[in-house]
Structures are given as structure tokens and as C-alpha cells.
Amino acid sequence: EALPAFYAASYYMGSTGVTLLILALFSVVITSFIGNLTAISRLLYAFGRDNTFAGWLGKLNRKGIPRNAIVVVVAVSCLIPFLGRTAIGWIVDVTTLGATIIYGFLSDFVYKHAKSRGDRKEAATGLSGVLLMGVFILLLLAPKLMSYDAMASESYLLFAGWSLLGILVFHFVIVNDRKNKYGHSIVVWIGLLMIMLLTIMMWENREAQKVTEESFTEIERYYEQQLETGEKPGDESYDLVSKEKSTIENANARGKLASFFIFMLAVAVMLHNFRTVRQRERQLQEKLGQAIEIGLTDPLTGVKNKHAYLQWETKIDDMIENGEIEPFAVVVCDINNLKHVNDTLGHKAGDDCIRNASSRICRVFSRSPVFRYGGDEFTVLLFGEDYLRRDKLLAEISEVAESSAYQRGETIAAGMAEYKEDVDEFISLLAVFEKADIAMYETKQQMREKYRS
Description:
mainly alpha; 13 helices; about 75% helix; elongated
């Protein structure tokens, strides 16, 4: 009669009913054991396979079974019964709470996925799952919320310790995560920390409640003895109350100290995890910036390449369209007779010719971005001070070209065009570039006639 389910089965079906109920419960235990063994071993196998934690856990035997992972789960499980039957109840509590949190995350995923697809029915079920799991978590964690206690005091401490162990393992994973795959969801960290803080507070509350109840029981026992003997409480009653009061205060102090230590340790590990992830992200950004810079740089000359010029072109065209552009000019430079150098002296000599010409252009236009636009063609964008000195700089590059001609070095033909806001044809950088390109070819023709004569 103390077990209503067994009593009902016995009352209506006799020993057959009791046998069926025992078999059903036995099946629940066995299937739960198999399910947990399968799920946890597959989880450890996934960790090992992805080289996240203990690579040897990710090995399969000849039958394709993660034997190592299963052995680890069984080895840990075999230790639990030695803690006593009560400890198994704690583990059931922690497993129930963990499963509730997992179902909550799963329901949240279903809600977001269904919402992105426009499936209102599935989104409603997902949201309902999130709310329902929230209620279950509250019922599990908050003692005396209903007419029964939520979990045993040890279960709260076990869950807090298990969470701390998980944080430490996660720290190990992040430190060894060379591919920067983990630790980007701050919300999960904060959520785990808040649940851990709540469980620690509940444990502290339950421990204080237990010690208080024991002290009151001790005081009640004393007064009951006094009533039975007919003696009046003496000074020892005051001493007993003082002693029990001190016991309660000491227990509260120990509980708060233990809670503070566990919580601060978890916070310290999480902050270290966060700092590690941020440092990795900064390193990744630096490498990405370096890769982008390499992709925008001409490997032969070290100046910006045509792809970089096209990015500038898009930016400048947007500024022109929005009326935000400042006055600028475009200079187009072309190396004379590069094909003849390649054909007669070889491509190495041609490369030297291009590098020398690039150095001379950069020396003249030292404050402006220089682009290698083509094989023997360079483009310079003049803004600010270089724009104000544009005529002087163009004359200087012409002088360099003339001196190079007399020294039988690389000669450069240059042409320039200015952006004029009130001219209808200058609606883009390309229009200014084409005008400068025409000016460059005119200069090239003049140089040919001069040097031929």
C-alpha cells in the first residue's frame, strides 16, 4: 500500500500485474542505460574524431564501433554504485536537469529554423517547447515551489560541480582549438554561468535549511525531555540555543564561502576562455588583413595592383555620385619599348625595367597611391597636397623620363587629367582615366618624334 502503482497492479491483476509492472520498470532501466551508453559514447567519439578532446576516443574497431568511448563510459559508470543508492538518485536529478536544458536548446533551434522558413505551426511548437522546458527547469531548481522538494541538496552541488567540470573541459578544448571553431557564443557562456549560480544558491539554501531543521529538532528534543521529566529549563537551555545558533551561522558562512569560491573559479575560467577566443580572433583578423593586403599588391613591384585600383574606382564613383568627392587628378604612366627589351634582352631584364620604372614613379608621387594597372602601365591618383602640386609633379616625371633616355635607361610617358565637377563627361573615375590615357599616348608620340630626331 505504500507503493500505489504496485498496490493497484496487485489489486486488479494479482501477482501477474506485479510481474508485468516489474518487467516494465526493468525495461525502462535497461533501455535508459542502453540509450545513455549509446548517446554519451557517440558524443565522446565525436570529440575524438574532430580532435577536440582525446583523439584516441575517435577510433573505431573492425565492426565500426567506438570501443574506446564505450569503455570510458562503462568505467565511469561502474564507480557510481560504490557511492551508494542515494548517489544514484543525485545522478538521476542531474541527468533530468541536463536533459531538460538540452530539450530547451533543441526547441529554441526548432523555433528559429521554422521561423526562417515561415512555418508558423512548427515555430509555435518550438516556442511552446522552450516555455515548457523553462517551467520544468524552474520546478527542478526551486525547492518548495510545489508541494514537494525539487531536488536533493547534493544534486544541486553535483550539478554545480558537473558544470564547473564542463567549463574546465571547455577551457581545455579552447586552448587546443587551433582552427578557432569553438567559444564564439557568449550567450551560451552566460546562460551556463547563470544556471550554475542558481544551482549554487539553491544548494546553499538547502544546506542552510537542513542545518536549521536539525538544530530546531535538537532544541525540540531537549524541551520534550524537560517536559517528560517535569524539570524546568535551566541555563543549559540557553547554552544549547547559543550552540545551535552558532552551528547555523557557521554552516551559512561555509556555504557562502564555498559558493563564492566555486562561482569565482568558474568566472575566472570563462574570462580566460573569452580572452583566448578574442586573442585568436585578433590574430585571425591580422592574418586576414595581411592576406587581403597581399591580394591587393603587385608581387613584382610592391605597389597596388589592378584589383586594388578597381576597389578605389568603386569608392570614388560612389563619392562622385553622392557629391562628396574632393578635387583629384589621374596620372597614367607607360614604360616605353618594354616589348623590345623583353624580346632582345629577356624577361628578366624586362622585369628589372618594370621595377626600376615603378621606383621612379613612387619617388615622384611619394604621397599618392600608385597602381600597376597593366604589364607596362601604371596609374596614380592625386589628392590633397599632391593634387595642388600636380603640374610640378608631372613636369618632374617628364624630366626623369628625359634623363633616362639620355642614359639609355627606362623611359616613361605620362599623361594627366583632372576631375572637374562642372564638366558633364566627368561622371566617373573611368572618364578621368580615359582622358589621362589619351594624354599619355600624346606624350608618348611626342617622345618618339623627339628621340627619333
